[in-house]
Every structure is written in structure tokens, then in C-alpha cells.
Amino acid sequence: MAMIVITSASIYSPGQSQSTLRPVLPREHETSIPFHLKAGGFMMVDGSVNGVGGEFMFDTGSPFSFFLNDHRLDLGPGKVLSHGGAASGQSITVMLHQGETKITVANDIRIEGVEEVRVSNFDFVEKEVESDFLGFMGRDLVRGGAMLVDYDTSKLVVLKRGADLSIYGTGIVLHFAPNAAAPSVTFHIKDVSITGSFDTGSLGEFVLTKETRHQLLQSGALREEKPGAANTTYVLSGLTYEGSMITLRGLSLKTGNTNRISGYMFLKNFRALWNLDEGTISLLEREVPLDAHSVARL
């Protein structure tokens, strides 16, 4: 792929002041971004910020195009915007760094003219996921159309505007509120409801109440994937969404007070065609069966 250069002329939307720049990948052509999985399923993308190399995490739960790690990067002083917490529980202070920031993604997508960017101290991600963590690539970067998260080829494909999506086949289409931070739907199995929520920055979990677990095991809808294996995983069959049947594999089960499934725990079962603007995720069959992938790849 040739070097893609995104300049400041293309990175803010109509009605915005130029003081709030929002980089967005172009839709005039298809852009393919290789990723690799770490720490059990986080989508990591090679890149650099002001010449400092490392890895970004692609996280649709992050609202910003980029949310950089000022513990790894020496970006200089910034303005405090807010205080809050990460989804994993850590307290963070959100700062606004002003000044030109040069960002490269996947070695051939260069983003120029970024004059403001949000930053915070993400040292906890360095410790738990990647020591060279640069920050998050968020959903604002891929707004404006569809993208394919393909776990078979380990590529995030940002599709061109007007692309023929039928070439990817027919899948089960989940519907949620447009531009939701964590798209959420309700699945059913027999007379049980299970809440599903999805973002690429979450390893996710599969949780059932004690009563539901017993019911599904007794009915055979839930079964051990490989009986006697050291790490027990489960297969869930007969899950439905708007009349369509879904089977999920490789599930690590917890007991809790609600029935829910989220993040990579669910998404790893599919190639997923996302359109956050329209509020849809199309679940496409994987070409490589999930059980053909060794845990070591993660």
C-alpha cells in the first residue's frame, strides 16, 4: 500500500471550529490496517507519534480519533479537560495537548496537521497489555461508513464510500443506537434473555446466573467444548436474535447476577462488518474456524 497522507484540510467535520480537529480515515478508497491480538484479544496496531514507535489499541469504545498516552510520549504541558475513570476502573485525568502532533498508523498511513489531541496517563495499559503503548485509536477515526474487523486475516478494513457490501456475504445484522459507545442488543435462548454489548477495546466476558447456567446445561444448549481440558470453555447453541440462530464457541463462563456477553468473547466468533453511523454490526461467518486458532496466537 502506498503512503496515505491525511492533512488538516480533511480532519474536521462541517460546523466544527478548526480548534477541535478530528482526524478521520478517507473514504475515497479502501484502507486496510493490519492488527495483531495481545493479552487475550486486544486489537493492537503498529504506529508512531512524533517519531516514537509503539502500538495503538483500536477501541470502538473510545470516542476520539486518537487518545494518546502521555506516560509513553513526551508531548509537553497540556490543559486539563476533565477527570474520570477507565472502563477497567483506573482514575484518569484527560488533558488537551496543543501543538502539532505527527501520527503514523501501520507504517503507511500518515496523519498530518493534528494541532490538538487528548492525552492521559495510561501506564496501567503499558503494564497489562503493551509496554510501548502509544494510546487508543477510537471510533471517530472510522466514522463515515462501514468497516470490516476480520479476525481471519488480522486486518481492519475501512471500506470506501459506496462500497458494495454484498461481496462479504449475508450475515446476521445487529441493530443498535447510531454511534453508541458500546453497542448493546438483547439475545434470547428459550425463555432466557442475554444482554450483548460490543467494543473492540474490551476482552469481554460471558456471565450467567446460577439458575440460567443450570437450565442451559440441563437442556444441552450450553456444553463443555472439550470435556476434561485444563481450561474449560463452552459452546452456546440456540441463541437467537430477531429470529436468527447463533452459535458461540470458546466461551469462558462466570457466574453472576445477570446474563450477559460482551467484547472479544463474543466478537471472536465472527468477521464483523460495522457501521457505527447507521447503528449496525453484520455478523459474518469466519472462513477459518475459531477452534483452528491456538490460544498461543493471542
UniProtKB/TrEMBL annotation:
Q: Which InterPro entries match?
A: Peptidase_aspartic_dom_sf (IPR021109)
Q: Which Gene3D superfamilies match?
A: Acid Proteases
Query: What is the protein named?
Result: Peptidase A2 domain-containing protein
Q: Which organism is it from?
A: Granulicella mallensis
